[in-house]
Specification:
The chain has 146 residues and is mainly α. The protein has a domain at 53-137. It has helices at residues 53-82, 88-104, 122-137; strands at 3-5, 16-18.
Length: 146
């Protein structure tokens, strides 16, 4: 135990006394891997200005657009890999939605049809989910070569 209680006959001093002295004789050890070899770039670290709310929104919107495009491409790839024949409408739907997301950042214009921050409307999301389910549940066609 680092502290001992003082006996009452020692007077009205402090209630606790240190049993050992502080151990400060040995110098502090430094880790060589923590030393930086190259100086930090200007503007890096804690002195860098945090992004503004508008910049944060733009970054989130770009990330959402990229994620939507990846999902659309993945739906087409899954259908092609499994040999699922998408209808002409489904193929055109995937192409037009991805084109609108690339051009305008979202695939619908009416704010009543979806959330203000989303890239797909509610119906477009449902249709995309149906296409992905169709591709996922279909059995792969066997490759038969003549």
């Amino acid at each position: 135990m680092a502290f001992k209680t003082r006996p009452p006959d020692k007077g009205p001093g402090k209630g606790l006394a240190r049993s050992k002295g502080l151990q400060t004789k040995a110098p502090l050890k430094t880790n060589a891997s923590l030393k930086t070899k190259a100086p930090m770039k200007p503007g890096a670290g804690f002195s860098a200005k945090p992004p503004s709310p508008a910049e944060q929104r733009q970054a989130q919107q770009k990330a959402l657009q990229k994620a939507t495009l990846r999902v659309l491409e993945k739906a087409q790839q899954e259908a092609a890999e499994r040999g699922v024949d998408l209808s002409e409408w489904e193929t055109e739907f995937l192409d037009s939605v991805s084109e609108r997301v690339k051009t305008y950042g979202r695939a619908f214009a009416d704010p009543d049809k979806g959330a203000s921050g989303s890239t797909l409307s509610a119906r477009q999301g449902v249709k995309l989910k149906e296409i992905r389910k169709k591709a996922a549940t279909a059995k792969p066609k066997p490759d038969t070569e003549p």
